[in-house]
Specification:
Layout (H helix, E strand, L loop, with lengths): L2 E6 L15 E2 L2 E2 H9 L6 E5 L16 E5 L6 H12 L4 E6 L7 H9 L6 E6 L2 E2 L3 E5 L3 H9 L14 E5 H7 L12 H12 L7 H10 L4
Parallel strand pairs: 1-4, 1-6, 4-5, 7-10
Antiparallel strand pairs: 2-3, 6-9, 7-8, 7-9
Helix pairs in contact: 2-4
Length: 221
Amino acid sequence: MAITSIVLAGGKSTRLGKDKAAELIGGESLLQRVLSRLATFSTDIILVTAAGQAKLPDSCSLPSGTRIIDDIFPGGGSLGGIYAGLSVSSSLHNLVVACDMPFLNVSLLQYLLEVSPPFDAVVPRVRDGFEPLHAVYSKSCIAPIQSLLEQGNHRIIDFFPQVKVRCVVEEEVNRFDPEHLSVFNINTQDDLNRARRLALSDTPLFSKSANIVAAKRRIHY
């Protein structure tokens, strides 16, 4: 199955106060860590950035076949980024992740792709929320996403009732990533510090309190 990987890198990093994609974790920039893992699945990678913000970290080298595109719906948030990536993708099924996930689990991502063919979207749901920025979307999602954006609605999960969604439940996720580090994203300096500590550990553990914080962050989706 031909796969395109879409990386959303159009965020303003307002909570961190600096360009999170350029921050070093385990000797690599955050963006480089994400891109190198996605290169496992395909040579077709789309990096979606905000208009006029296509500058890459100095330490980041793009895998062969990577394209950089601007958001089509400026101000459309992550939903707009998904729409932009799907619109130019040449693949029916597309792996979509945010650029601030330093511990993507290749085995879990492969599982999402394996179960995706009959569905329009394959989205993990852990604890109390969906992880829509760690998911697989088909091009059939373009029209319902566009409809939401034109209404000024940027909540990703609001288009789910209009498509065929495969929810990957926590028990399935736990088979590959029991600590749910794959969906851990960086928003604050505390997150960044924790990621750097985890990158140094041979057997990183994600504390219960950190998991609770991460679950709360999903509310805006």
